[in-house]
Amino acid sequence: MRWCSVGIDLLWLSVLWLLGCATIVGAPAATVALAETVRLIQAGREPVIARTFWNAVREHGGIATRVGWLWLALGSVVVVDLLIVLRLGPEWAAAGSVLGLLLLAFLAASVFLPCVVLARAGHDTRQLLRLGVVVAVVRLGATLQAMLVVSVAAFLAVVSPLLLVLLPALCAHSLVFMWRMRIAPVLGAREVRTVAAVDSRA
């Protein structure tokens, strides 16, 4: 019976996330709401899924949207620059390597960005972007593992689109667990206190 309830929660969460992403503009807010709902589940709060999800959208939607779309814009600049350098010829190989590493670091920082937004709720966009980069650099191994989780989930979704009714929630559970176990404990004291404050407030 417990496994049935867990399966229904995963299904419901994934559907809510897909609905939130339907407008595309709402994707960052929906992703942060997914992470927040999963965080509460892992903390043993047993939240009402739909209510918790949409409350998180309302509470964190503004900052999530600003950070998410600014992050996407910065990533797009890196991708465009890399494509231009690759077309310039072999003499630009060094610049292409630097941009390639920059893109990898950018992608690594992206996987935990929803958790960063939740950990620093109420802080400004620049601070959140800075913390995202710090997480990617300080915990590169964990972020690369998280990238692998996301890549496998994306591959499975392409192979079998029906898995989209489960994969978003499963992926979120994995990333939030990794954040709690491997990222949050090694952040600075200020970030750890903020995480604790968010947990106590929920």
UniProtKB/TrEMBL annotation:
Regions that span the bilayer: 12-35, 67-86, 92-119, 131-156, 162-181
Organism superkingdom: Bacteria
Coiled coil location: none
Family annotation (InterPro entries): DUF624
Identification of the protein by name: DUF624 domain-containing protein
Lipid metabolism in keyword set: no
Organism of origin: Occultella aeris
Pfam families reported in the protein's UniProt record: DUF624 (PF04854)
Keyword terms, alphabetized: Membrane, Transmembrane, Transmembrane helix
